[in-house]
């Protein structure tokens, strides 16, 4: 292992662009490392010197900028104008400046700004935390062992392992490669994949042709290899053009855009109301222009929903954090809204519907099927035929092929798991180990032709010593003399595909021609195993003379060895999760690359209708129109490729479905990107799939999708509650001021002619109401629990605005009810006492009480009790306590109000009871109206 050293991060030589043209020895010398990687201590020192391996965002918002942005809004400008107007009045002849009102308006504006800043800042932090959670991992050599680390911890000198599906997280020079191909389109613009090899290229080679380098932001689409990191972070090629590949930014959600548009419409509406009310007062009364202006500004203050955008963003961010706790990582906040509308989920089988814990249970060789005992990764077990235990030599050629044509490996004793690698390949290693094969000393590999979804097979070329297990080797020849090392090609893959590349089949006495009868017998056994819910792979081998021969030559005329059938049990709760989704109006479709018989067997076990199965081959024969009709009745798609999944997605979307699509492979990227909600697997998913997705399942469990849909619906409910609450409260305040001034102008013309008496409520009062009721109580709605039976509803119509007809009707009706009861309280007090200040105080307190109680009225429509959300209980209690503090302490002087007597409270109580009674009646009417 390379001794600990300190690389100089400020040395320009370290960052010169000649890595591609130098020998590997020189590259290692320059990064002060070797093929054994770094020690943990040295890596930590280099991380301190070079900094995290990340592309720093150029548009990050500082806290100061975020705070100032709280006041950059047209509606906030209206409130500032109201404060300045309060001071400006004192400059007019005959008027005194209202310093108290101005100070309070500015204070409340500042408090609102702080509140909005705290919410936005927390939302930014939540979003950043989600980004950090979704950062890819890298596999490196540290202290001589292969370990997985966060990609931000990569440093120059690290030796990294690359394989199909990995996103490349640092610029690196290849050490070795086997069929390695990379997609560099994000960096070079070239659409075709690039073959990679370690050999140096000339110094003047352009970036797109540097075949021995891999770069940040690209991805491995085939093969595997190792490389040494030469640049990280902002020193990478991507870092040099960082503005072009910023980390994925949170897009403004449709609802946030709707909220912003709503604010603008409210602003224009307020201006229109001011003009109307000013015209009425000036034409029909003797009110002064200044009184008219103050009424207009007060009306504007009542209409401003200051906290709406900030609370919406925070609710989405907090909801996303809760979803992470349920193992669903939301990479974009907008997906929360889409989740509420999803009506079809297209899911993979392996690892999502099943446990992804493969165990070989059957081995087929020479016309006989053998049972294999043992489960999981335990390497002890027995082979039996018809209940009789037999020696492993009976199936040795099949076991050997499964172990050699394999990229899994046993993990070191210090690791948390027994094996590294794909679960299918791990199962093959375990079965070989049960047969006595030395899985820790594989033969030297000369070449690999990697598996892909198109090829449906993998082949390797190896130099091997004859196994001591038996005298029959894979190609049917007798063992070669000790010391010789025959070169052989091994293949594994879909049985039918493997058979297509075979000319012979191995029997106990040696290879014989693969006749149609023998082929039919093998395929019949394959179907029999698949009907037992086993995933079946075929195996083949042959001796070769030229390892560098073309792929077609290497993979033709193989000798078929046999089959291995492995079982991956369904997840315990998946059948219930699928049933829950169907109850929620969500169709569930399984799309798998497995044999149709296996797909049917697993599908039947978890609740799918096997009669509706469709294969990829049948799908290819269909036109787009035929597929659009077929997808409405098919629940199981078998032997499908990623390209088939894209067609399935397009057919469903053409039928106006909102589709959630799962995926884990590189080629699943298009389907994930184009689906309404792309769902990547967190455990077995490739980095490319994760980066193309909207949501990552951290546990790969379909049940988590069900839980995420429920959580998403709950989040959307909470936003609807808040919007309903805020807009109905503001509508009530606007109508109270608007109608109150009009009514007062006619009933009390002399009283309402002056600038002070013309105000039903002062701007300060309205700002205070908005501050205490739109603050903590409204925010507490963001953590409301989900309603019972939330998955018993149909999905939300994606074309329906959050401000639907029912909500608009509710907002307007509540505004009318608040106006009727509130002005009843106001004018009763005004006529009975003749004190405007006392009437204003009653109305001021009545609105605070009604608005916080309105919270529970809204929540009751979701069958939620008051005490189901302790945060809301606390927020309401604190709001009422603060209101009492304002009423019964010297603070009332600043608000221009009086302490209330028991008689005053009784008047408020009567108005409150009337309001609740009318509200119940209106809700009953709306239930009947909108249900019909």
From TrEMBL:
Keywords recorded for this protein, A-Z: ATP-binding, Cell membrane, Membrane, Metal-binding, Nucleotide-binding, Translocase, Transmembrane, Transmembrane helix
InterPro entries, sorted: ATPase_P-typ_cation-transptr_C, ATPase_P-typ_cation-transptr_N, ATPase_P-typ_cyto_dom_N, ATPase_P-typ_P_site, ATPase_P-typ_TM_dom_sf, ATPase_P-typ_transduc_dom_A_sf, ATPase_P-type_domA, HAD-like_sf
Domain Cation-transporting P-type ATPase N-terminal: start-end pairs: 18-91
One Pfam family linked to the record: E1-E2_ATPase
Entry superkingdom: Archaea
Record lineage: Archaea, Methanobacteriati, Methanobacteriota, Stenosarchaea group, Halobacteria
An individual GO BP term: inorganic cation transmembrane transport
Species this chain originates from: Haloferax namakaokahaiae
Key word rRNA processing present: no
Membrane topology: Multi-pass membrane protein
Descriptive protein name: Cation-translocating P-type ATPase
